[in-house]
Amino acid sequence: PPPSTTNRHDQHNQSTNINNMKGSRHDSSSLPSFDEMLNREMQSLSVQERSDVYEDINAISRTIHETEEFIQSNLFLLGLSLNAISFKPAFDLACQQNMSFVWNRSFCLMFLRARSFDPQKAAECMVGHFELKLRLWGLSLLTRRITLNDMDSESRKTYVNGGAIQILPIRDVAGRVVFFSMEKDHRQHYPTDESIVRVFISRLIWYNIMSIIQDDVESQKNGVVYIAYSLGFEPKADILEREVWLGADEVTNVCPVRITSFLFCYDDRKLEPMINVLAAGLEKTARCRFKPIFGDDKECKQVMMTLGIPVERLPYDMDEEKGEAILNNNNFFNKWLKIRKRIEADPNHEYILKDKLLGFNDIVVEKGQCFQTHTGNRRFRDIVESAVDAYRKSKEEAQQASKTKKVSMSSFKVEFARGLVNSVLTQSSVPMRFVKKVDNGIWEEAPIDEAVTKAKNLLHRIDLATKSQRQQSSKGTTTDPDHTKGKITSIPVDEDGVAGQRLKVRR
């Protein structure tokens, strides 16, 4: 990026990194420790900015309310800030080449959202974005969306076959896309030529970030989480490794993405000098959200769980004999690649990809015990259980009315379930939606009728389960410790009503 795209403090850090990493692994020891850098950065923040950092790291949802007036005002200020930057050759070239691409409303909004609607920072990021894009991809691609086919054959092969950088198939608790990088598998796929490795890694990360962020407004608003899984990684601290880290920093600093949390998992203290270099090279707001996690696989997962990460969907398997993580590309990553290729193959496609990832609070309408532990289904089941008493009372009233009037019990159940679904969609304290799996394991919103059927069946089954419990209690079954031997004390329930056994009711 040109000097105007970073503040003086960041420029000094990045130049220090380059000078200190040219020699042996101990050269980076002259850098301040990560804790010292973090304390210095946090002290420079306002109270509100510190609160924002805390909420972002701990997966507390935080978005800016965007009214049309607010957006128009910030777009105008962004234009003024861009005009005030005198030295922006790549940006000027892009304007000459395709003015409509540069000043596209959606494109400009990406940069404003990435910098929390600070027009000056958004303008600097935008200028740096075109400078790096020109250097990585050339003039012919300066005002075009980068596709997988724009990579050279070696980069494309590494990205497709390696899968060392990918996204999880489910968002975190705050609804953010989670990027995952298996650090120990990187080096075997990279070129050994030190002069091209930074461009190589920068192109991979550029495509990975931009292919997501351009098409997903929710990710622009909520930000993204980046997990660098470095367990088993043996640092070399050579020039090749330095180029990889600096290339990653360079891309994340100028791409229109708000990194709300950067989790670096490691189990080797020798990595700490590299952590200092990586953190120092990040843009200030991302550096404050950088969180190293030291420990074995189990300990790192426990910490990530407390930060809202769906650790059960991390794309690796543990080899118990070797005690190391093995990357698993057989699931979502390959499906995601097929979707991207299908979109990019159509030259008339607008590249608008709706939210296809399973959200933490999404309710899966499909049957099967594999979804019983999903957060959205558990939360929906709790809502239904709390409505069972009202359902039973309304059902008794409807049954009484059906003796004197032509009232259909089937219609009553459907309408009650429909009201429950509407309340979940409109009155829930957290955004919830009903989803189903479509082609290649991608999710989309389910029709309202399918959601109503889900609610109706769940109401019916929970009603039967509680009725059976009352009948067992009336026959002498009790939860008293002196009377529990050999008797039923509870009925386990899954996301559709019953787990392990199905209640059989005599008609």
What's the layout of helices and strands?
Blueprint: H1 8-20, H2 34-43, H3 47-57, H4 68-84, H5 89-97, H6 99-102, H7 105-114, H8 119-137, H9 153-162, E1 165-167, E2 177-182, H10 197-213, H11 217-222, E3 224-229, H12 239-254, E4 259-266, H13 272-281, H14 284-287, E5 290-294, H15 297-306, E6 316-319, E7 324-327, H16 332-345, E8 363-364, H17 375-404, H18 409-427, E9 434-437, E10 443-445, H19 448-474
Parallel strand pairs: 2-3, 3-4, 4-5, 8-9
Antiparallel strand pairs: 1-2, 6-7, 9-10
Helix pairs in contact: 4-7, 4-8, 5-8, 7-8, 8-12, 10-12, 17-18, 17-19, 18-19
> Span from first to last CA?
74 Å
Query: What is the string of SSEs from the N terminus onward?
Result: HHHHHHHHHEEHHEHEHHEHEEHEHHEEH
Mean pLDDT: 78
Specify the biggest β-sheet.
Answer: 5 strands, mixed
Give an overview in words.
By secondary structure, the protein is an alpha/beta fold. Helices cover 50% and strands 9% of the residues. It is built from 19 helices and 10 strands. The protein has a 5-stranded mixed beta sheet, with helices on both faces. The protein has a 3-stranded mixed beta sheet with strand order 8-9-10. Strands 6-7 form a two-stranded antiparallel ribbon. Helix 7 packs across helix 8 and helix 17 packs across helix 19. The longest helix is centred in the last third of the chain and has 30 residues, at 375-404.
